[in-house]
Amino acid sequence: MPKTVHNPDFLKKRRQALALVSLVILLALLMAWQLVTERSEPVGFAFWVQLGLILLLVPFLFVADRRSLSVLHEEMERMRILEGNVLRANSQLEAILAAISEPVIAIDESGRILEANGACEVVFGYLREELQGQNVSILMEEPYRSEHDSYLASYLRTGVKKAIGKNRQVAGRKKDGSSFPCEISITEANIGETQNFVGLIRDLTQERELSLKFAQAERLAAVGELAAGVSHEINNPINTVLNCAQLLKDGDEDPDLLQDICDEGERIAKIVRSLLDFAKEHSEEMTPVALGSLVSRTLGLIRRRIQRPGIEVRLSVEEDLPRPWLCSHQIQQVLMNLLLNARDAILQQEGRTEPGVIVVSLESTLFEGQQGLLLKVRDNGPGVPRDSQDRIFTPFYTTKREAGGTGLGLPVSLGIIQKHGGRLDVSSDGASYCEMRILLPILPPEETS
Question: How do residues 313-356 score in pLDDT, each as one tens digit?
């Protein structure tokens, strides 16, 4: 049977009431004693009965008072146990937070930091005591620092979740003023009617550096692929230059020969510039890009490499498309990877009888309720088996191991598209086609999120 929960305030008032009653009874007894001593005639039987009842009532009142003391002692003991449980729970919570290797921060509805674990000191350089009471925006780089409070106020006012419950890639700010890439996940942790929030932060510095190395490795591998593909493109103008030079040497004075040499030389230089531009390091800054033109340029680099074995390439670009914010060289790398994968899938299909076809299309669409673009690369190869479609974006998983595949092309491509706030997925029946779909927002990721 559960114990009754007692209120210490109630018990205190009860004791005061009992003491007051006892005092009244004592006063009544004194008055009665005075009455007896001052009476001249003998008292009656009724008087003694009343006096006896009064005397019997006094012990009962003291017993009740002792019971009140016992209940009060029990209540104090229960509070002591509860206090011990709270202290143990706090100790366990602190131990759990200390064991988490990534920063964890709790904030209230105004954005003030309530609690932070030890990993915050390692990542941000602030002591726990320095963070408590500060606005969480001190851990953010612009533009997130200025926008945070308005985002929080907007959620509390409208209930619309823009960041809560989602993983967002933002820029963190350390105590020394340096910035670093990080991913933050925010959840609600309400206590009663008080709205609190907990943020889990993951430092992406090493992951970003590794991703850049993988991307560069893939880009260099693609350069080798391109070098073999553009060799024919370079041979033709070189032959023209040599023929014109020979004619001039033999005494031909036709001025068009000099112009032909200049034109073909410029053609060679343009091909080499395109190849070098694709291979070199680029700025990560996003700018508005005419994606249709970028797709056409990429196909121009690789078309002959695809068409030489007899594969037809078709391009369909919708007119008057908006310009999305992109890192153009990164999107070019993703498209190059998808085109080469499509070519390899067609060439590796045994017993093939129909011609190979790769269709590249670009059109406008809606992406997460906003204007976006859909870029598709579809081939009529053997497709991707259904049991492998969830694994093709896993690092080092490849079906081209014997042909020198690294298994990094699609994971790197996926990371690039996600960095742009987009989505990369696959559609295939596992037998007759494979379609890679790239969904991209028009605005930069920080604005679409």
Answer: 999 999 999 999 998 888 988 898 899 889 988 988 877 888 89
Please report the DSSP string for 212-260 in residue order: HHHHHHHHHHHHHHHHHHHHHHHHHHHHHHHHHHHHHHTT---HHHHHH
Please choose, from the candidates 301, 304, 242, the residue with its C-alpha nearest in 3D space to the C-alpha of residue 272.
Answer: 301
Measured CA to CA, the distance from residue 341 to residue 335 in angstroms comes to 10
Q: Which residue has the tokens 């490795």?
A: 217
Domain 204-281 has CATH 1.20.1440: no
Coil vs helix vs strand at 234: helix
Evaluated on CA atoms 186, 191, 196, 199, the torsion sign reads: negative
Please tell me the distance from the alpha carbon of residue 111 to that of residue 136, in angstroms, as a whole number. 6
Structure tokens at 196: 């609190």
Please choose, from the candidates 326, 278, 322, the residue with its C-alpha nearest in 3D space to the C-alpha of residue 300: 278
Q: Do residues 112 and 133 lie in contact, with contact meaning Cβ atoms separated by under 8 Å?
A: yes
Residue 29: strand, helix, or coil:
helix
First vs last Cα of the chain: how many Å apart? 55
For domain 286-449, the CATH class is alpha beta
d(CA 140, CA 182): 10
The token duo for 295 is 């797709």
Task: Count Cβ atoms within 10 A of the Cβ of residue 223 and give its class: 0-12 exposed, 13-18 middle, 19 or more buried.
Answer: middle
Judge contact between 141 and 173, C-beta under 8 A.
Answer: yes
- Chain-centroid distance of CA 16 in Å reads 60
Token output for 190: 């309400």
Would you say 311 and 303 are in contact if contact means Cβ atoms under 8 Å apart?
Answer: no
Question: pLDDT tens for residues 272-306?
Answer: 765 665 555 555 678 899 999 999 988 887 787 78
pTM of the model: 0.47
Rounded CA separation 136/124 (Å)? 12
Alpha-carbon separation of residue 319 from 292, 358, 359 (angstroms): 9, 21, 17
Q: What's the confidence (pLDDT) of residue 137? A: 82
Mean pLDDT, to the nearest integer, of 126-139? 86
DSSP H helical ranges for 308-376 = 328-347
Structural domain spans, the chain: 8-98, 100-203, 204-281, 286-449
- Of 3.10.129.10, 3.30.379.10, 3.30.420.310, 3.30.450.20, the CATH number of 100-203 is 3.30.450.20
